[in-house]
Design brief:
Elements (H helix, E strand, L loop, with lengths): L2 H15 L6 H12 L4 H8 L5 H8 L7 H11 L3 H33 L1
Helix pairs in contact: 1-6, 2-4, 3-4
Amino acid sequence: MPKRLQKASSERIQRDSSRKSSSVIGSFLRNAREKRGLSQGDVAQKLGLGSPQSISDWERGYGSGVPLNTLLKLIKLYRIEAVKTYEIFVEDYLLRVRQKLDRKFRTLLRTQRSA
């Protein structure tokens, strides 16, 4: 790839990836939980989790995200529409994959330039 194209591509990726990462599904689930009047502790207990930390992590976009089987339980618990929730889940997942690939690509570009 010509150097000017590498530079333009690298700058676009840095700009796109420098945006603060947030969890679309996390915000959606937090809002749904709050509408049902449940605390993170309530949800953790109903899911059989030892602590509310996982709920907090999912809502803030930390870790690997909400497991799909748990998402189904949350849909039922929060009484939210399944298809809409799944679409938001997929959107969030694809965003995470894109960010991860962008980071790897930037690293490869830097390595290639220094070689």
